[in-house]
TrEMBL record:
Name of the protein in question: AA1-like domain-containing protein
Signal keyword on record: yes
Keywords: Signal
Lineage top rank: taxon: Eukaryota
Length: 171
């Protein structure tokens, strides 16, 4: 009887599926360029500056600084930035995977692994970029007079974006 029970247990263990969840960011299949509806005329596309600030500039789909890839991090939706960052401007991002992050006041490039910053996702149904996290309905709400993106921390006045799928450019 004990032998049969042990055999049944080994059989059940052998047929069980193991799910391995990656601990780092996983890129989705599409790299995108985001164009703000009613953005700065002729400068509607989101762009990441050397210091990680997000601004609206001309839409140049082949430029890595304008490209974002939706992905996952520990099961949460994220937006991975295609461009790389250099030592004098963002030493904290050199050699790291950068995501669009929200620190409670600003959306900007942040290390995807930084746990003190909320990641963001693209709400496809509404065309909005929104912060992940309980109690944060914050969204990217448009731009100021210098074309720097702005935030609505209530989530009521969000900018809308169209997306264009592009071939990723080397960072």
């Amino acid at each position: 009887m004990k032998f049969t029970s042990a055999l049944a247990l080994l059989s059940a263990v052998a047929s069980a599926q193991v799910v391995i969840v990656p601990t780092g960011p996983v890129r989705g299949p599409n790299t995108l360029v985001f164009k703000e509806i009613n953005g700065v005329k002729n400068n509607e596309c989101l762009t990441f500056t050397n210091d990680g600030t997000i601004v609206n500039t001309a839409c140049a789909n082949a430029n890595a600084d304008r490209q974002v890839t939706p992905g996952k991090l520990l099961g949460a939706d994220i937006l991975i930035i295609q461009r790389s960052f250099l030592q004098p401007f963002r030493p904290d991002l050199v050699g790291k995977t950068a995501c669009i992050g929200f620190n409670g006041t600003t959306f900007r490039a942040e290390d995807c692994a930084e746990r003190s910053v909320l990641t963001t996702y693209f709400d496809v149904g509404n065309g909005r970029i929104v912060a992940n996290g309980d109690g944060w309905p914050a969204c990217l709400s448009g731009h100021d007079s210098k074309a720097i993106v702005t935030v609505d921390d209530t989530g009521r006045s969000c900018a809308q974006f169209t997306i264009t799928a592009v071939t990723p450019t080397k960072p």
